Task: inverse folding
């Protein structure tokens, strides 16, 4: 027997005791899959120490951890957030940064992604530019998932 004397295995997940569906809301799971073929150098020696800062509708929603001395790397980091409106209407902006031990971090390039105009949100390449020049890309996957409101 479950809580209040009902059998939990008789009810479907996401339903109320009456059997009515519970209320849900959508969240965004944004996977930063990889940083790819960065051609811009900001360090005198070695390669950049890249990380990505992510904005949704111009609000900072997260950033990845810096990776030392590389121009391409598999990141596999997840950023989760909830939007005020329709998640597919969210405009994403990405800033690729170079972590510096001394002084301020350097901006390597930036790019944007508009899910409203895409057929698929999986395995998308976001092309990065700096002063109008292509400098590489990042790979992302965006999932929109309903979660229960309790």
Result:
């Amino acid at each position: 027997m479950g809580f209040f004397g009902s059998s939990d295995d008789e009810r479907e997940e996401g339903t109320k005791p009456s059997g009515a569906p519970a209320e849900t809301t959508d969240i965004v799971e944004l996977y930063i899959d990889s940083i790819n073929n960065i051609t811009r150098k900001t360090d005198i020696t070695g390669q950049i120490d890249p990380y990505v800062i992510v904005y949704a509708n111009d609000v900072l929603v997260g950033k990845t951890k810096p990776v030392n001395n590389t121009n391409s790397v598999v990141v596999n980091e997840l950023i989760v957030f909830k939007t005020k409106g329709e998640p597919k209407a969210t405009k994403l902006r990405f800033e690729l940064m170079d972590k510096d031990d001394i002084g301020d971090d350097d901006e390597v390039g930036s790019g944007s992604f508009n899910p409203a105009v895409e057929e698929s949100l999986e395995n998308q390449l976001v092309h990065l530019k700096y002063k109008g020049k292509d400098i590489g890309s990042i790979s992302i996957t965006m999932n929109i998932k309903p979660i229960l409101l309790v």
Q: What stands out?
A: The longest strand covers residues 133-148. The chain has no helices and eight strands. The chain has a mean pLDDT of 91. The two ends are 21 Å apart (CA to CA).
